[in-house]
Amino acid sequence: MNWVVAAGGAIQNQRHVQPLSNSLKTMTPYLFPDYQVAGAGDTTVFLLHGAYGGKDYFRHEIEALVQQGLRVVAWDAPGYGISPLPEHLTIDGLAEAAARLIQAQGTATNILVGHSMGGIVAPAVCGRIPALVHGLVISATVASFSQKTEAEKAIFLEERIAPLNRGQSFRETAGAVVASMFAPGSQGPKVELVREVALSTRKETFVAAISAIVHYEGVPALRAIHCPTLLVAGAHDKVGKPEAMARMVEFVPHANYVQVDHAGHYAFAEQQDVFNQHLLAFIGEVQAKQRAAQP
Question: How many domains does the chain contain in total?
Answer without folding.
Answer: 1
